[in-house]
C-alpha cells in the first residue's frame, strides 16, 4: 500500500523518517518493509548475518552494526525474542541510537519490569505489540501488509513522554495498523485470552493428530487445518511467550479445560448430557461472532524448504523450475512470499529433505540467490 505522493507519505510519517529495526526476523522485517513503502529510511541489525542479509536483499533496509548505528534514528523498534528485549533496549539507549524506542514483544509486563530493573529510560520507551503475525519465522516469511487492519497495542508507562507515544503511534499507523493504548497488565490478560491460550489449545488439538493413523490424516479437511494453523509456530518462541505470561494464560486454559471436561462427561453420559454440549457449541458460536477480523493463511507441508530470491519479472519462476528440472530434482510444492510493489520475492521451494543440498547447489551454480 504505497503512499500516492511524497507529500502524503511525509504527512503520514510525521517526523518518523529514520528508523532502526533491531531483529530482522518475521516481525522486524515486516515492519521494515511497511515503513520502506512510506519512504522511511530503515537501518537493520540482527545477530544472525543470514537473516540480516536476506532482509536487506528483500528491500527492508540497510544492515548496520548495532555497536555503531550512526546518527540517532527517530525511532528504534526492537523485534527480538521477548527475553532479549530489555538488554537490547538498554544497549541502544546507552549508545543514543534513537530518540524514541519501542518493541514488538507478545508480552508486556515482564518486558517493562525488566527494562525498569536494568535502568532503561522509560520516558522514551513505548512498549508495543503488533497484533499481526504468522506461524512462520524469519525474514523470508515477512510481508509488508502483515499488520494491515490489525490492532497494535501500545503500553506506555506513566513515565512516557507524550511525544514518544505520538511517534510510535505514527509508526504503527504507517504499518497499516490501528493503535490501541492500554496498561501492560491489561494487555497481558487480553492476549492470554485472544492469542496465548488459543495457541496452546491449538497445539493440544494438533498434538492429538500424532496418534492418528494415515487413513485418519488423509481425511483431514479444512476444519482441522484452520484450528491447528498456529500450532505450526516455533515452540521455542512460544514457550518464551508463555513463560512471560504464565498466570493469565493458565487461568484461560483452566476454563477451556473445564468446558472440554464437561463436554466429554456429557457425551459419555449419552442423551441426558446433550444440553451441556449444545450449550458449549452455542457459546462457542457467539464467542466466535465477537471476533472483529480474522487471519487467513495456507498450511505449509513439512518438506525441506529452500528459500530462493527471485526477481518480480516474467518467467522468473519458469527459469527457476527449469533449473531444478535440469538438476533432476522434483519440486513438491512452491509458495511465493511477495510484497506488492517490491522488485523481488522469495520462492519457498519444498523438496524431499535429501534433495535440499543438491537443489541449493544446482540453483546457486546457475546464478540464483539461494538462502539455505
Ligand atoms: N510471530 C508472530 O506471529 C509475532 C507476532 C507479533 C509479535 N511477535 C513478537 O515479535 C518478536 C519477534 O518474533 P518473530 O516472530 O519475528 O521471530 P523471528 O525468530 O522471526 O525473529 C526474531 C529475530 O530476532 C533476532 N534476535 C535475537 N536476538 C537478538 C538481539 N539481541 N538483538 C537483535 N535481534 C535479535 C533473531 O536473530 C531473529 O532474526 C518476538 O518478541 C515476538 O513475541 C511475534
Ligand atoms: O496469525 C498468527 O499466526 C498469529 O499467531 C499471530 C498472533 C496472534 O495470536 O494473533 C500471534 C502472536 C502475536 O504476538 C501476535 C499475533
Automatic annotation (TrEMBL):
PROSITE patterns: ACT (PS51671), PDH_ADH (PS51176). Pfam families: PDH_C (PF20463), PDH_N (PF02153). It is an enzyme of class 1 (oxidoreductase). Its EC number is 1.3.1.12. Keywords: Amino-acid biosynthesis, Aromatic amino acid biosynthesis, NAD, Oxidoreductase, Tyrosine biosynthesis. Pathway: Amino-acid biosynthesis; L-tyrosine biosynthesis; (4-hydroxyphenyl)pyruvate from prephenate (NAD(+) route): step 1/1. Residues 272-294 are annotated as: Disordered. Residues 17-298 form the Prephenate/arogenate dehydrogenase domain. InterPro entries: 6-PGluconate_DH-like_C_sf, ACT-like_dom_sf, ACT_dom, NAD(P)-bd_dom_sf, PDH_C, PDH_N, Preph/Arog_dehydrog, Prephen_DH. GO terms for molecular function: prephenate dehydrogenase (NAD+) activity. It catalyses: prephenate + NAD(+) = 3-(4-hydroxyphenyl)pyruvate + CO2 + NADH. Coiled coil: none annotated. Residues 305-372 form the ACT domain. NCBIfam families: PRK06545.2-3, PRK06545.2-4. Belongs to the prephenate/arogenate dehydrogenase family. This is Prephenate dehydrogenase. It comes from Nocardiopsis sediminis.
Amino acid at each position: 500500500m504505497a503512499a500516492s505522493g511524497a507529500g502524503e507519505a511525509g504527512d503520514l510519517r510525521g517526523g518518523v523518517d529514520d528508523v532502526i529495526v533491531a531483529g530482522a526476523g518475521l516481525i522486524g522485517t515486516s515492519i521494515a518493509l511497511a515503513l520502506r513503502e512510506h519512504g522511511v529510511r530503515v537501518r537493520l541489525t540482527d545477530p544472525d548475518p543470514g537473516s540480516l542479509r536476506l532482509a536487506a536483499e528483500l528491500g527492508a533496509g540497510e544492515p548496520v552494526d548495532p555497536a555503531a548505528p550512526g546518527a540517532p534514528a527517530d525511532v528504534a523498534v526492537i523485534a527480538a525474542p521477548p527475553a532479549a528485549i530489555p538488554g537490547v533496549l538498554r544497549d541502544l539507549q546507552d549508545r543514543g541510537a534513537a530518540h524514541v524506542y519501542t518493541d514488538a514483544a507478545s508480552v508486556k509486563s515482564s518486558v517493562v519490569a525488566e527494562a525498569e530493573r536494568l535502568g532503561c529510560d522509560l520516558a522514551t520507551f513505548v512498549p508495543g505489540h503488533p497484533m499481526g503475525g504468522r506461524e512462520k519465522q524469519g525474514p523470508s516469511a515477512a510481508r509488508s501488509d502483515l499488520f494491515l487492519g490489525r490492532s497494535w497495542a501500545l503500553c506506555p508507562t506513566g513515565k512516557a513522554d507524550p511525544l514518544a507515544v505520538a511517534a510510535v503511534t505514527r509508526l504503527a499507523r504507517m504499518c497499516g495498523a490501528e493503535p490501541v493504548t492500554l496498561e501492560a497488565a491489561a494487555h497481558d490478560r487480553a492476549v492470554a485470552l485472544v492469542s496465548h491460550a488459543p495457541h496452546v489449545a491449538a497445539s493440544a488439538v494438533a498434538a492429538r493428530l500424532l496418534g492418528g493413523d494415515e487413513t485418519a490424516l488423509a481425511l483431514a479437511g479444512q476444519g482441522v487445518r484452520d484450528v491447528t494453523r498456529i500450532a505450526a509456530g516455533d515452540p521455542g518462541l512460544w514457550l518464551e511467550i508463555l513463560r512471560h505470561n504464565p498466570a493469565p494464560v493458565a487461568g484461560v486454559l483452566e476454563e477451556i479445560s473445564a468446558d472440554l471436561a464437561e463436554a466429554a462427561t456429557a457425551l459419555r453420559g449419552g442423551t441426558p448430557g446433550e444440553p451441556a454440549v449444545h450449550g458449549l457449541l452455542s457459546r462457542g458460536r457467539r464467542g466466535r461472532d465477537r471476533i472483529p477480523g480474522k487471519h487467513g493463511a495456507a498450511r505449509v507441508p513439512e518438506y525441506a524448504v529452500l528459500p530462493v530470491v527471485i526477481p518480480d519479472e516474467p518467467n522468473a519462476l519458469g527459469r527457476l523450475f527449469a533449473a531444478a528440472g535440469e538438476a533432476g530434482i522434483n519440486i513438491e510444492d512452491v509458495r511465493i512470499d511477495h510484497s506488492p510493489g517490491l522488485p523481488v520475492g522469495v520462492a519457498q521451494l519444498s523438496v524431499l529433505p535429501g534433495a535440499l543440498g543438491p537443489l541449493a547447489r544446482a540453483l546457486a551454480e546457475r546464478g540464483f540467490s539461494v538462502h539455505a
